[in-house]
Design goal:
It is a single chain. With 589 residues, the chain is α+β, with helices and mostly antiparallel strands. It contains 23 helices and 17 strands. The chain is globular and about 70 Å long.
């Protein structure tokens, strides 16, 4: 796990080493354990390393036959199996990222079909002076690129591309509107003009400083459904064990984010089965907020399986002090208030471990969201997320008319696939919501604290192995949703292996009391938000002031979205450092 960055010059000349160094410094927080770089021909590759596997020998860049060079961010979980598939190769390291290099030499671009993991890879082939960029099928690991001033630039985070000095942080207004209405942005284009995402599962080939070819693998591809529920439970047990076992491969301590919900409880049960030592489990709650706190349940489950439970508080003081750091970390912004507890939990866990397993993807793969049940009941498919978060509040100077365009494209694409209405709704979330909100949040909040996050429910499998995600996605609708509850099969499995989790009780959604905290400071924060340049250019200052001053609990998410965006704009567009607390950053002129 690490941060990667690099560039290719269009004119064929050698890249500027100082430019690469600036980019690497911008992702240095992702990899505090070392740094490596390589320049050959028109291409420069760099990596800031977080050492997880082969701590001494796995430094990057990695080199192969005929001058091939690779840097990667992520983990190839089936690396041991891949070593066995490459007889005759003289491996230089024990790194999980070396097999892809040799697979590419033997098989060319199809090498990614053998990779079971999360990854963003950059590979230079000097034989034709090409640069290959590839991202894992779910987009668990990020990768961005831009073409600017005769260069193709790439990095794990947009701020590293901006740090090159070749492209300015110019805001795309349509993407700003999309962010504030949806809480994330869709597709390949980011909120920064000229900076693009590789899509999940995408590979691009670059020559002479330009993208010349694109290939893409879309996940998940549904696996065959078992004939009976009993067979499905047995297969779920096998694949969950296989995925968790693979996701635990590490040469450093690891733990689990435990919420007490279905997904993390299932991971806890399986980790307890597989580990001879007690699992380290981390939970967070909001004392004195009045919200339901599942830490007692999490502690009970941890005791049941012999895990060591760590409990973390998140208070109003944490909210106001940590928010500038969170906005700084979320350079590709997602206005998801769950980034706040995720950030603090990562801070705490990083004191003891370098890897945590987390339950992201469980809802999307096994059918957990209430909107999926709604989609199944409708005779004709209706658009999801038809209403924006700021609709009806009369905040915009000019109401955005096309904020839903990118989401609409994804909707149309999912309807072209022969799947059930439930699977179409799942695939729509997998296309944008999952990579551009949930996984971006997990990546940025954890990597800002030099902590690696792993997601066993998003095991994509490989060319010779069915992954947990393909199995779950391919299940019959009735094995996902039954009696008004989602994730039926996963609940059945949990009822057998950790019944104390009460899997068939109706779980309360995870809520952060941001509206409550903002309302308590409404009079103080209202004028600060209203005068922010990023707010004033798009919103009516008097309406913004009224929203905050009237008490933000009523429109808590709208207030949160504007506050987050104001801080994000201060740092990432205006260039002000995220120093002090929220009020300090908002006061900067």
């Amino acid at each position: 796990m690490c941060g990667i960055a690099g560039l290719m010059r269009a004119d064929g000349a050698a890249p500027d080493a100082a430019l690469l160094a600036r980019m690497l410094r911008a992702v240095g927080h992702r990899g505090p354990d070392g740094e490596g770089s390589h320049i050959n021909g028109s291409v420069a590759l760099g990596q800031a390393r977080l050492a997880i596997i082969d701590l001494e020998g796995g430094k990057q860049p990695l080199f192969g036959a005929e001058g091939l060079a690779l840097v990667a961010n992520g983990e190839i979980y089936n690396y041991r199996e891949l070593y066995a598939l490459l007889p005759g190769v003289n491996f230089a390291t024990g790194s999980d990222c070396e097999p892809p290099l040799h697979l590419y030499h033997r098989q060319g671009k199809s090498f990614v079909e053998h990779l079971r993991g999360m990854y963003a890879i950059a590979l230079h082939d000097p034989r034709d002076d090409s640069l290959l960029l590839a991202r894992d099928p779910f987009g668990i690991k990020p990768l961005y690129y831009a073409e600017a001033q005769g260069h193709l630039l790439f990095a794990s985070e947009p701020q590293a591309i901006i740090a090159s000095g070749l492209i300015a942080p110019r805001l795309v207004a349509a993407k700003r509107d999309e962010l504030l209405q949806l809480q994330f942005t869709t597709g390949a284009d980011t909120i920064f003009q000229g900076i693009h995402r590789l899509l999940p599962g995408e590979m691009v080939i670059c020559r002479q400083g330009r993208v010349v070819e694109r290939l893409r693998r879309v996940a998940p591809v549904a696996a065959a459904t078992p004939r009976s529920e009993a067979e499905a439970l047995a297969e779920l047990d096998r694949l969950l064990q296989e995925s968790v076992d693979l996701h635990q491969r590490a040469d450093v301590p690891y733990g689990l984010f435990l919420s007490g919900g279905i997904d993390s409880s299932a991971l806890l049960a399986m980790m307890a089965r597989l580990n001879p030592r007690p699992v380290l489990a981390y939970s967070l709650g909001f004392p004195d907020s009045g919200l339901h706190d599942e830490r007692d349940l999490a502690a009970t489950l941890a005791r049941k399986v012999g895990a060591e439970h760590r409990s973390v508080d998140f208070t109003a003081a944490d909210f106001w002090s940590l928010l500038p750091r969170v906005a700084e970390a979320m350079d590709d912004p997602a206005a998801d208030y769950a980034c706040l507890p995720t950030f603090k939990l990562a801070q705490f866990a990083a004191r003891e471990v370098k890897v945590v397993l987390s339950g992201e993807g469980g809802d999307e793969i096994f059918g957990g969201y209430g909107r999926y049940r709604s989609a199944m009941r409708l005779l004709f498919a209706k658009p999801l997320r038809r209403k924006g978060a700021l609709d009806g509040l009369d905040l915009f100077r000019v109401p955005p008319a096309k904020w839903r365009s990118g989401y609409g494209i994804a909707e149309r694409e999912t309807r072209l696939v022969e799947e059930t209405k439930l699977q179409a709704a799942q695939r729509l979330d997998i296309a944008d919501w999952l990579p551009n909100d949930l996984l971006t949040k997990l990546d940025r909040c954890l990597m800002r604290n030099a902590l690696e996050g792993r997601t066993p429910f998003l095991d994509c499998g490989a060319v010779d192995a069915v992954g947990l995600s393909a199995f779950g996605f391919g299940l019959n609708d009735g094995l996902k949703i039954r009696d008004g509850l989602g994730k039926h099969l996963l609940r059945r499995w949990l009822s057998q292996h950790l019944p104390e989790a009460e899997p068939f009780s109706r779980k309360r959604g995870f809520t952060v009391p941001v509206g409550q905290w903002i309302a308590a400071q409404g009079a103080r924060v209202a004028p600060l938000i209203a005068r922010q340049p990023g707010i004033a250019e798009a919103f009516k200052p008097e309406a913004v002031t009224q929203l905050f001053a009237a008490g933000a609990e009523r429109n808590g998410f709208a207030a949160w979205a504007l506050l987050f965006y104001a801080l994000w704009h201060q740092h990432h567009i205006l260039g002000h450092k995220a120093e002090g607390d929220t009020f300090d950053l908002l006061a900067v002129r």
